[in-house]
Amino acid sequence: MFQLYSEINHLKFLVLMPLVISVMFTIGCETNAVLTETPEGEITGGKLAPSPEMPTGATGHQQPPTLADLVESVEPSVVSISVDIVSRGMFYNFTDEGSGTGMIIRPDGYILTNFHVVQDAKEIEVSMSDGRNFSAEIIGLDKLTDLAVIKIGAEDLPTVSFGDSDNLRAGDWAVTIGNALALKGGPTVTLGIVSGLGRTIQTERGDLYDMIQTDAAINQGNSGGPLVNLRGKVIGINTAVYGGAQGIGFAVSAKVALPIIKSLIDTGNVVRPLIGLNGINVTPALASRYNLGIAEGILITHVQNDGPANQGGLKVMDVITALDGTKTDDMAQFLGLLWQYKVGEEIEVTYVSDRSPKVTRVVLVERPSF
């Protein structure tokens, strides 16, 4: 089970590796990356000064490249979030304290963080890198992607800039910046690589899809902070870590986050279509055990009564293989395609039932927010 860091004091403290205060690394390439100019209207951050030559030390030897310029560029847009959460007891209600991280996404005070950081918060306080503190209000929540947008009463704020997570490859460098362990003295910076893409993980709040896996340390308090590339662009939002191993953390990809952010700011929620079924990935073991007659797809485990899938004739143990002709080899692909449609649209579902290929059409309805 993967843990979402809600940083509540009464929760069991995870045994973590000692916090890395400084990171040294060697890269066999130039690091004179400069943030390029972005189109008008795009959320942008600061620019990095070019470094045409690697610095030379007193001995005349070349020194390793540094991430200091990158950190200085992004840090003003990263905030610390503290929350008071009311826990209901048998006789009394108690107020717990929690902490997390956020990133400024608009100059007029809109901040992106994780759903689990601000869920059930009675009060939210945001601390800026320049020492200013603000009270914040919740603008919108999306439990399905574990994202939230909050707002403070400030203007002309520095903002992050989002990169293209579609072009990520396993092995690309990645940097996390966040309020790890709520330590004083500024954010904690860690370096790692992109370890995997398109991951699906199970958490106590449900499954998260299309996640970026990284070995850059994600500790308590990092939730909601940016995962950035070496150009200072946000490629993910730090979200979860696997407590049973070292160096396995996960971030919501920028591709997934951007439309969610827009919807939360515009309407306060995310409207998604519902097909009315639950499913799991077909594996070789499942295909063999149940004689499915197909090696990839979505095995239906539950069909909602009177839902679109039920009305379209789909049933438990059918295997969905495509939506409108586009293959759905796993749940990440299936949901990614499904959520591109609008409520009320009719789609073609290709599936296998009792080892026979079939096609049906269903009309999508609106998915409840929670």
Average pLDDT, to the nearest integer?
A: 81
- Please give the share of residues in helix: 10-25%
Number of helices: 6
- Structural class category: mainly beta
Uncertain regions spanning at least 5 consecutive residues:
5-54, 90-96
The CATH class of the domain at 165-267, by name, is Mainly Beta
Q: Measured on Cα atoms, how large is the radius of gyration?
A: 22 Å
Q: From the 3D coordinates, which CATH architecture of the domain at 165-267 would you assign?
A: Beta Barrel
- Cα distance spanning the termini: 22 Å
Share in β-strands:
35-45%
> What summary fits the major beta sheet?
6 strands, antiparallel, barrel
CATH superfamily of the domain at 165-267: Trypsin-like serine proteases
Strand order of the largest sheet: 8-9-10-13-12-11
Task: Estimate the global geometry from the Cα principal axes.
Answer: globular
Key attributes of the depicted protein:
mainly beta; Thrombin, subunit H; Pdz3 Domain; globular; six-stranded antiparallel β-barrel; six-stranded antiparallel barrel
Helix-strand layout with pairing:
Elements lengths: L1 E3 L63 H7 L3 E11 L4 E12 L5 E5 H4 L2 E7 L5 E10 L4 E6 L20 E6 L9 E16 L2 E9 L11 E3 L5 E9 L6 E5 H14 L5 E2 L2 E5 L2 H6 L8 E6 L4 H4 L7 E5 L2 E2 L3 H8 L7 E8 L2 E8 L1 E2 L4
